[in-house]
Fold this protein.
Amino acid sequence: MSGHTPEEIHHHVKIYIRVFAALAALTVLTVGVSYIKLPVMAAILVALFIATIKSSLVAAFFMHLANEKKIIYWILLPAVAFFLVLLVLISYS
Amino acid sequence: MSEHASHDLPFWRKYIFSTDHKVIGIQYLITGLLFLLFGFILMLILRWQLAYPGQPLPFIGHLFPESQMIGGIMLPEFYYQLGAMHGTIMVFLGVVPVAVGGFGNFVMPLQIGAPDMAFPKLNMMSYWLYFIGAVIMIASFFVPGGAAQSGWTSYPPLSNIASVGQTFWLVGMAFMINSSLLGSINFITTIIQLRAPGLTFNRLPFFVWAQFVTSFLLLLAFPPLMAASVMQLMDRVAHTSFFMPTGLVVNGALSSVSGGGSPLLWQHLFWFLAHPEVYVLILPAMGIVGEIIACNTRKPLYGYKALVYSVIYIGVLSFVVWAHHMFLTGMGTTMSAFFQVTTMIISIPSVVILTTFVLSLWGGSIRFSVPMLFALAFLPMFGVGGLTGLPLGLATADIHLHDTYYVIGHFHYVVAPGTLFALFAGVYYWFPKATGRMMSDKLGRIHFFLSFIFMNGIFLPMFIMGLAGVSRRLYDPTQFAHNLSTQPLNVVMSISAWLLGLSQIPFIINFFGSIFRGKKVDNNPWKATTLEWTAPSPPPHGNFATEPHVHRGPYEYSVPGAKQDFIPQSAPEGAR
Amino acid sequence: MSGDSGIRYISHPHPVTGVTNSKLGIWCFLASEVMLFGGLFSAYILLRMGAASWPEGSAILNVPLATLNTMILITSSVTMVMSWASLALKDFKKYRWFMAVTILLGLAFLVVKGFEYAHKFEHHHTPSTNTFYAIYFTLTGLHGLHVLGGILVNTYFLFPGSALWKKDPDQFMGRIEAAGLYWHFVDLVWIFLFPVLYLL
């Protein structure tokens, strides 16, 4: 978030409401999909895909990551990279 | 702004629950040094059993309770407690608290010209979490069954079925992990936010760079061990089977747990921490050595940029080498190949660092002060430790060497005559900053030469024993015929260890004696350039009377045409 | 964290990095949290891939209750960010209102979780039953502890901690933002936990 002028904040609030609606809809969607008995691999991919979208929305708008200072990205970059390393290498073994 | 609020505090707020980074740094340093001594003494006791298996420990043997020694003869259970706790205490309660908590806390804010850490209260909490964790670890010696005895690596399933001491180990570790988490957040924030005006990242002293990268390692590598500790705690307390495979037989009976777990999972998560942890042990040491070499050769560090990039490179790569500790687990050739390659690659920046240090000596007018002696000894000792690691990083050689004394020799060369020498160097170097007094040069030299000889007396024979195939975990090495030929070496090593213990007496006398009786010196006795030497000794609360401004790089020694052979970082532009 | 020794950038951002100390600090903390849950998620993957059979979450766990809990947490994230926005609009009353709702929603989440746990224990489904329940209880338990921690922090900022608003509104807003970042992160973890444990 860059500015704190009232107009900007009101604009932010509008976005928050929309994000909330999207999150709720995606929650319903992911539960709905789970009732269609997809093959395991497909089910995992769909569920993780939806979860990734949802978490990206939270991170981007609620946590203001969509418009954050560079230094924060630099802190998060190694964390995300090593998170993936951990996941990929351990599951590969 | 920077002076008030320090004189009027009561004693316990000023020296015990202090939020001042210098007080916390000294608390860390002294607590850590005491734990180093304690962990060392555990090993001195253990070495009796290795040198003279089954013989009663003279003089003090009968002081131990029957659960530990019978008639002065050490029980195997106690032997394994000593081994496990020696490793745990030296790494987690000794070296890291001294290197990061002690030197990092005391020196780093001074070197960047900050009044304190970014979060002073968190800093205090970090120390006290460490303290509580340490108390829990020590308390575990007195619980039924004694302390943890499954090695410092706590491999399950053995650790899952061990006595209650292991639970204490896990809870103690949880405190240590949270302590270092708070510490690393504080370090990163402080280094990024609170550098004095003009102190850009490429003017940062090498020591600060080393602490910066170390903090990232602590921040990101410790949490998976936290996760693993939680799971092992669940295994032990709630009888889950995270690390318990199906069909496990314990003491001749089928284990009653549900099974389905994986002991390998622990190894992965443990080494995901513990390999970066190795660099947590060595990077601050390299930082200290870099500072001391630049100051005592009176010339800039050779290849400052190469050093900085190497440190960052090591930091990143250290997260993808962990499974070279696991070549024997049967994780498959693809994984082995991957981790062999990364392990070979990570040796390159380490060599770059060592090489630049050696090259920095060339053409310098070296002052053989006590800190410099330790720093100089660090170079070949770390070299031996590093080079002997290469065969361990190759699966083919590691199959033979794994879990032998060769491994012990390898990593002890890195941390004992390596890191510990650097830490001693740091103590001698920054002591006048912390107290305003010098440590005795004569006692320092005695300490150095004796330590240097006996350190090698302990660790050099380990390579021979390891190549001969002696396992690292034997309570009584003489029960196997192939160990008999190397058994005399165990006597040499044990005697060296005990003499090394005696060699620390001059240091202890020097350290405590010099606080009161050391020669008084001015603010910059070593004629060094970095910012901490422009603050008063000892620095007051808030450190600098006026905020320093930085105009140059960290190592402007012997600049041609300059009046003196050093120009402090804060000297104004054009000052000669 | 009082500025008694002249530490800068507590309430105003650093001119170069553009952030305050607390914001950088909380992001470091979250980076570390990513690795904590990363460790547990990788444990989940390894255990599941190594298991002879793995139960389907939806068959043995209560999906409607978990869906309710998901909705509760998402809503609480909105109220949390609204409490911050209210401060930005200098509306302290509204801030308190939104913060109180956030805390209540957090508590509601824990109550629902409590019912779920109680139900499992009644049927003797405990962590020791099998590795699925082991990782289920460990992950949700650790997440629950994070929710509890968030509730405690938020309660502090609702009552005693809010005195700072009068003294230094910028610093207080920074603290609420940091508390919010933590709270959203806890929500974010749940967004992954929900499908991974309950739906797959």
